[in-house]
């Protein structure tokens, strides 16, 4: 940790303002009018403008730089706070408070139930009056003090959702700690953070920034499992639990060890993550987190040890970055070449595949599928192109794969229509579209990305599920034949009187909705 402390230069990157700042200062920077029309249901441009008007210009500039959007504005995805909330809920001794519209908070509690966190999610309610007068901020401060129990928590994360972010509720002015409990405030507005995957970066980066300051201030806790006796490689990106173990085995002949995985599971792991020899950008979109590592003097290596080509290139890059002798690196490279080549000879995939998702590992999975023999025609990812996935993009392009960053649902569906794959791997609506067309399909998040991908284990994990799915084509055709003639859409099913066609009414209603939304976007009206 001493080397890390020397390389750290204190700055204001964390945006912490001392306790005791006059409350009037808070209200000066907040919106003067209720933000009732601001949120994921309102106009994006109006929300951005409101945030800037409320003194959040620096925040918006940072979000736009870190998470650039696509030509269609942003991908269709779940609320981004789903990702940051998940990160906090998975951490030991970390509490969570949400500040946002009640409907949003209610929906986001799904995260805690879905992942079995068995934790309560704190919520600070508000109305137009408390939002405009600054009382909401004071309520948040009160809630933080009530929750900051050092017997229960190492940290409390407070998250602004769309409306408080657009209204300028200044979480940066919360106390840095209360009774030894760290207070971390973040803004995760849907109009500023494109995907839930990148929201994981928002919280991880805020915690890393806080941890860097703690390292600079003095001694910090050791990891629960103790310190490694070798230089470590910090792994950035959520992975199947076996992957870090596989990577650790690859690194051992090089005199290296796998370090913590970011997002971490415990606060003290942040110190060990920072105290590494090099950072592996397994998932390439953690832009703000990489900035914290670079500020601590750590180099970043892109791509990942997937497939034959990917594993060999990654090990070479790690060895060079850590100054490992070529002979030692060659031991691991040769071993992996032999093991992966043998696995590739044993496991093959035959069939045409289109792939899309929003987890950030889409390019890695595509590389595996290509090496396994699959005819991959299209890859769409909701995440952006970064310096750390450029090697993967170049490799896929060289193998004839059409690649779309910040892909929209429309692009994913168009690729399915164009390439007519034997298997569509994608998000829920893509899977639904494929199955309606009697094409086998698999949901990327639960059935593909939640599997080992690294080294020989990755080669062996995919073919069984992929080949089984492709082999189900006849079942889909049989189901289509069985249900032939029962109608589609509103007329699906068996009726005594088939429902009337209401498409004309729908078009008329859609035109009115579009007109209303344009009025909100242009600032002519504010409301739902």
Strand percentage: 5-15%
Going by helix content, strand content and strand pairing, the class is alpha/beta
Morphology:
flat
Mean pLDDT over the full residue set: 84
- How far from one another are the termini? 51 Å
Side-by-side strand order of the widest sheet = 2-1-3-5-4
**Oligomerization category of the chains in this entry:** single chain
Fraction of residues in H or I helices: 40-55%
Largest sheet: 5 strands, mixed
Index terms:
single chain; 528 residues; alpha/beta; 24 helices; 48% helix; disordered C terminus
Structural account:
With about 525 residues, this protein is of the alpha/beta class. Helices cover about 50% and strands about 10% of the residues. The protein has helices spanning about 1-5, 25-30, 45-55, 55-65, 80-90, 100-115, 130-135, 135-145, 160-165, 195-215, 240-250, 270-275, 285-295, 305-320, 325-345, 360-370, 390-400, 410-420, 430-435, 445-450, 455-460, 465-470, 475-480, 505-520, and strands at about 95-100, 120-125, 155-160, 175-180, 180-185, 230-235, 255-260, 280, 300, 350-355, 375-380, 400-405, 425, 440-445. The strands form three sheets. It has a five-stranded mixed β-sheet with strand order 2-1-3-5-4, with helices on both faces. A five-stranded parallel β-sheet has the order 12-11-10-13-14, with helices on both faces. It has a four-stranded parallel β-sheet with strand order 7-6-8-9. Strand 8 (about 280), helix 13 and strand 9 (about 300) form a beta-alpha-beta unit. Mean pLDDT is about 85; it is low at about 1-35 and about 520-528.
């Amino acid at each position: 940790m001493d080397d890390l402390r020397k390389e750290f230069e204190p700055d204001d990157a964390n945006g912490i303002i001392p306790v005791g700042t006059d409350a009037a200062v808070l209200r000066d920077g907040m919106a003067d009018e209720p933000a009732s029309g601001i949120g994921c249901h309102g106009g994006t441009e109006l929300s951005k403008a409101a945030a800037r008007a409320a003194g959040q210009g620096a925040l918006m500039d940072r979000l736009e730089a870190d998470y650039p959007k696509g030509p269609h504005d942003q991908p269709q995805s779940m609320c981004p706070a789903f990702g940051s909330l998940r990160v906090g809920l998975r951490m030991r001794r970390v509490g969570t408070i949400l500040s946002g519209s009640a409907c949003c908070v209610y929906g986001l509690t799904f995260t805690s139930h879905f992942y079995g966190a068995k934790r309560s999610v704190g919520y600070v309610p508000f109305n137009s009056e408390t939002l405009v007068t600054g009382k909401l901020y004071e309520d948040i401060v009160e809630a933080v003090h009530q929750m900051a129990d050092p017997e229960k928590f190492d940290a409390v994360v407070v998250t602004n959702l769309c409306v408080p972010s657009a209204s300028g509720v200044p979480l940066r002015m919360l106390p840095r700690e209360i009774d030894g409990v760290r207070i971390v405030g973040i803004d995760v507005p849907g109009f500023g953070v494109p995907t839930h995957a990148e929201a994981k970066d928002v919280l991880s980066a805020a915690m890393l920034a806080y941890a860097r300051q703690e390292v600079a201030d003095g001694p910090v806790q050791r990891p629960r499992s103790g310190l490694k006796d070798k230089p470590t490689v910090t792994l950035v990106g959520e992975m199947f639990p076996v992957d870090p173990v596989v990577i650790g085995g690859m690194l051992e002949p090089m005199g290296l060890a796998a370090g913590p995985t970011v997002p971490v599971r415990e606060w003290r792991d942040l110190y060990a993550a920072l105290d590494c020899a090099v950072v592996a950008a397994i998932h390439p979109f953690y832009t703000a987190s990489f900035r914290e590592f670079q500020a601590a003097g750590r180099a970043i290596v892109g791509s990942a040890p997937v497939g034959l080509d990917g594993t060999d290139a990654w090990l070479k890059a790690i060895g060079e970055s850590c100054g490992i002798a070529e002979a030692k690196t060659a031991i691991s490279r040769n071993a992996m070449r032999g093991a992966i080549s043998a696995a590739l000879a044993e496991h093959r995939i035959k069939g045409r595949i289109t792939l899309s998702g929003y987890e950030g590992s889409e390019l890695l999975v595509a590389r595996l599928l290509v090496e396994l023999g699959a005819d991959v025609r299209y890859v769409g990812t909701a995440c952006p192109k970064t310096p750390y996935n450029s090697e993967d993009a170049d490799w896929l392009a060289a193998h004839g794969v059409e690649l779309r960053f910040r892909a929209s649902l429309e692009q994913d569906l168009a690729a399915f229509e164009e390439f007519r794959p034997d298997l569509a791997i994608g998000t829920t609506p893509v899977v639904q579209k494929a199955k309606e067309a009697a094409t086998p399909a698999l949901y990327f998040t639960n059935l593909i990305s939640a599997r080992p991908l690294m080294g020989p284990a990755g080669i062996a994990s995919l073919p069984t599920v992929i080949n089984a799915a492709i082999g189900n084509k006849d079942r889909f055709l049989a189901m289509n034949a069985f249900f032939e003639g029962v109608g589609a859409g509103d007329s699906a099913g068996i009726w005594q009187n088939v429902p009337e066609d209401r498409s004309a009414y729908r078009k008329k209603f859609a035109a009115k909705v579009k007109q209303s939304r344009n009025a909100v976007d242009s600032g002519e009206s504010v409301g739902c």
